[in-house]
Design a protein that fits this description.
2 copies of one chain form a homodimer. Chain A is an alpha/beta fold and 337 residues long. Helices cover 44% and strands 16% of the residues of chain A. Chain A binds a DNA duplex (30 and 30 nucleotides) through residues 3, 5-7, 15-19, 21-22, 25, 27, 29-31, 34, 49-59.
DNA sequence: ATAGTCTTCGGAAACGTTTGAGCTGCGAAA
DNA sequence: TTTCGCAGCTCAAACGTTTCCGAAGACTAT
């Protein structure tokens, strides 16, 4: 697997190797005749440019780091899909890393990305504290956070409007006739959850409802977590007619627990999620939920990052996308008896 | 974001830059005193080695290409998760690409990987013909195919034993009392599906059952495809008591169609899948299915690839893993009335 | 014919690292 | 005292590109 270099074809074509380089890059100062001959030789000799050598001199690898907590999570893998698409359209490739939701891992991966000289990194932070852990490294690598609202932090991010999404969610349930709505899931910790629960509270106050929380103390938001908490919830009679889950994964856990307890959804209880992960659209599940515009999130993330790379001095941008509600089958109208 | 190089520290430490390099790499011919001073300086000056320069001279990027058809597919994202874990444990990073199930895309991505000088590529092929499209490129890059059985092709692959898995599946249904079992899904095209349907047929013959196929002519295996085909299936009275879906995604489509037709699963019809994607374990779905050992698949893929990279001359390896059956709730025992 | 301009190409430096070969000084063996 | 070996370091080449600068030749204008 030895390399055929630009010098080899230069020798074969009887020109200098700078001429070959220029031929390949489409420089105008090369005659059609020699260019043709060079390109011909390249094909014959199976030449492929060595990108790492090019990166060396160009000081750009055309690589973007993508650090996620867990690529097997459906939300992240879908995001990764779109990010790769957009990046590739812009001439970049993705180097993927899983931080496993560990701040140390995350930091060490970030350093690795610096060492690898990727042009920038897209970070789905492990926790809201990620910014603090990484702060000292950030000046050395253009970075964009996605999914977390870093409010008054001087770094770029793109996220959905979690506050508004939650607000929309309770409005929706209100219109269906629900007056007792439980908020289920994490409340503290990440700004994401903080904003969602704030939006919930604000909507409740606006509509004259009494807010009630059921807090998940677990740090991870797997289905299992939601399931365990939901078991607790269902161990005593339910006051509410609807529950608003902080994430779709939580909602899935509720679904499971409800199934086991014989609680029918939506007949006995309406269930609303947040994120619209792919699982939610599956048959038999049909979770109605407030959707994060994942494709848009992805393309804005890479566009913002590429902008930042292009003009280094430019400050930071905060982009906040508006969510939308997708109706499926887990919420139903309720008569106000 | 300008770079602190090895020369900067050399100047600061008052030594030559080769001394710095040797200090960093733990070479024995450097005195403890100078090594200490150098390392100290590195920390102070925020030095991080430039990996691309190193790759240049070492002729190794410590990068592995991972080409999948669609990272948002739960099977592949789970595999990618394990692959990344194993690769990182071995000192490698992953550059991820989506071929979008297109042979041209796949080929162009493969060329890109060879231009990027990744040390090897792990390929989840777009089609069984992928080998033909890539054949001319293969000698130029260590590659391992995963998921497809390339039988008599001189390239390495690792896959599950699809034949045996299908065989096990019908045996399982037989033991539950089922005598009329429909095979549902793709049959031609990929060797994967060919082997599965062969395993089904063999088991049927062995057990004295009459095989019946319902073939999916669509090239992609999305839920929607399974759904459409299942609608067709349910438009006339069912002769079978069980259906064996070629993939879990197909099974999910059947589930959806059944739901709409009012066909209860497993009461009216037992359903068995293949792959054990994460979705199958979801509440309300609980698809029983034959499982591909994804974690093992992943670690064998990277181990095999790394072996191949280490000794280039070594031939190829074919590894075929045995599947297992995971019981959930979509199959039930049937009385032989 | 001379000067000037353009076109087309070659030479060489630079990117940041690793590493083989060579150099220096010091202690020990002869 | 001379020679040798060795520890500890420096020099310089090499990896495969891109690109600035300059040179040679052809062509045009005077």
């Amino acid at each position: 697997m030895k390399q055929v270099t630009i010098k080899d074809i230069a020798r074969a074509a009887g020109v200098s190797y700078s001429t070959v380089s220029r031929s390949l890059s489409g420089s105008p100062e090369i005659s059609e005749k020699t260019r043709k001959r060079v390109l011909e030789l390249c094909r014959e000799m199976n030449y492929t440019a060595n990108t790492v050598a090019r990166s060396m001199v160009m000081k750009s690898t055309k690589l973007l780091g993508l650090i996620v907590t867990d690529i097997s999570n459906p939300f992240m893998s879908e995001l990764a899909y779109y990010i790769d698409g957009q990046a590739r359209a812009r001439g970049y490739n993705i180097v993927l890393c899983n931080s496993l939701r560990s701040l140390e891992q995350e930091r060490s991966l970030f350093e690795l990305m610096i060492s690898r000289k990727v042009d920038g990194v897209i970070l789905l932070p492990a926790e809201s504290e990620s910014y603090n852990t990484l702060e000292s490294l950030l000046p050395r690598m253009p970075t964009i956070f996605v999914g977390e609202n870093l409010r008054d932090v001087p770094e770029s991010f793109v996220t959905v409007d979690n506050y508004r999404g939650a607000y929309m969610g309770v409005e929706y349930l209100y219109r269906l006739g629900h007056r007792r709505i439980l908020y289920f899931g994490k409340r503290k910790g990440s700004t994401t959850h903080q904003l969602r629960s704030e939006g919930y509270r604000a909507a409740c106050e606006e509509l004259g409802l009494e807010p009630r929380y059921m807090n998940n103390t677990f740090s991870s938001t797997s289905i299992r977590n939601g399931y365990q908490l939901a078991q607790q919830l269902f161990s005593q009679p339910l006051r509410e007619t609807a529950v608003f889950a902080a994430t779709d994964t939580n909602a899935l856990g509720i679904l499971q627990a409800a199934e086991e307890k014989g609680i029918r959804i939506p007949e006995d209880l309406s269930l609303l999620g947040f994120d619209n992960i792919r699982d939610s659209g599956l048959p038999r599940i049909g979770l109605t939920t407030v959707e994060q515009p994942k494709k848009l999130l992805a393309s804005m993330a890479v566009d913002s990052l590429l902008d930042k790379i292009a003009n280094d001095q430019a400050g930071y941008t905060h982009r906040i996308l508006t969510p939308s509600l997708v109706e499926r089958t887990t919420c139903r109208a309720v008569s106000r008896a």
